[in-house]
C-alpha cells in the first residue's frame, strides 16, 4: 500500500561530465520484465565536491521522507558496489574505486530530451526504428555526457520505497572509448582494453548548461 510522501520532489540538478553506462535512450527497455518500458541510463561520476553535493541532496530527500537509517532505496551506488553487480575485471574495479554511479530512467511516454555538445537538440522521431538506432549509436556506453535529473520520492509498499531519479535530459559532451561486449544481463566481464582511458580530473565540458 502506498504512503503519502512529505516532500515528493527534490530540486532538479545537472551532473558534471561523466561516463554513460547501460544507456537505453533510443529504445525503451523492459528491465524488470514487467512490461514497464523505460528509457534509462547510468552515469559514472568522479566522487569530487560536486558529486558529493549531489549525493547529499539525494540522501537529504531520503531522510526527510523516510527518516535516518531507513531501508529506503537509493539511486546512488559507489563504484565498487556497482562493480559487484557483474564480473568486473581488476582494471574495471580500479577505474571505479573513486567514482559514484547514478541510475536514472524516464517513462516511455515522456522520453528524455537529447542534446549534442554544441547545444543542438538530437531530434527524436516517434515510431522510427532508424531514428532509435541512430540515438543508440550516438549515446553509447562509454560516451562522455552530463545529464539533468529530478529526484522523486516514492512509497509503493513497505518493501518498495525510496528516491529515484527522473531522467530529464542528456547532453553528449564528447566521444569516449566504447565499452563493448556487455549486455543488460550484467554478466559479461568488461575487458580492460575497452575501458574509457581518460582522466576524470580533466574532463571535457560543453561550456554551457543544458538548455532545459
Written description of the protein model:
By secondary structure, the chain is α+β, with helices and mostly antiparallel strands. The chain has a single domain, classed as Nucleic acid-binding proteins (OB fold (Dihydrolipoamide Acetyltransferase, E2P), Beta Barrel), CATH 2.40.50. Strands 1, 2, 3, 4, 5, 6, 7 and 8 form an eight-stranded mixed sheet that branches. A hairpin with a 2-residue loop joins strand 7 and strand 8. The protein is globular, with a radius of gyration of 17 Å. The chain starts with 12 loop residues before the first strand and ends in a 38-residue tail after the last strand.
Summarize the structure in short:
This protein has 212 residues and is an alpha+beta fold. It is built from four helices and eight strands; from the N terminus they run βββαβααββαββ. It is globular.
Amino acid at each position: 500500500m502506498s504512503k503519502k510522501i512529505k516532500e515528493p520532489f527534490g530540486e532538479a540538478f545537472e551532473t558534471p561530465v561523466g561516463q554513460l553506462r547501460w544507456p537505453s535512450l533510443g529504445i525503451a527497455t523492459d528491465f524488470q520484465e514487467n512490461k514497464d518500458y523505460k528509457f534509462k541510463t547510468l552515469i559514472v561520476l568522479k566522487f569530487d565536491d560536486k558529486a558529493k553535493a549531489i549525493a547529499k541532496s539525494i540522501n537529504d530527500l531520503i531522510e526527510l521522507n523516510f527518516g535516518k537509517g531507513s531501508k529506503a532505496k537509493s539511486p546512488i551506488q559507489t563504484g565498487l558496489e556497482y562493480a559487484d553487480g557483474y564480473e568486473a575485471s581488476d582494471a574495471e574495479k580500479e577505474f571505479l574505486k573513486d567514482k559514484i554511479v547514478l541510475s536514472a530512467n524516464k517513462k516511455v511516454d515522456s522520453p528524455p530530451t537529447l542534446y549534442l555538445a554544441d547545444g543542438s537538440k538530437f531530434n527524436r522521431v516517434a515510431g522510427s526504428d532508424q531514428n532509435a538506432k541512430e540515438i543508440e549509436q550516438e549515446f553509447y556506453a562509454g560516451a562522455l555526457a552530463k545529464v539533468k535529473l529530478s529526484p522523486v520520492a516514492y512509497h509503493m509498499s513497505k518493501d518498495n520505497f525510496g528516491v529515484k531519479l527522473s531522467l530529464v535530459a542528456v547532453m553528449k559532451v564528447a566521444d569516449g572509448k566504447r565499452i563493448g561486449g556487455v549486455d543488460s544481463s550484467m554478466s559479461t566481464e568488461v575487458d580492460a582494453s575497452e575501458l574509457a582511458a581518460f582522466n576524470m580530473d580533466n574532463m571535457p565540458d560543453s561550456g554551457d548548461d543544458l538548455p532545459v
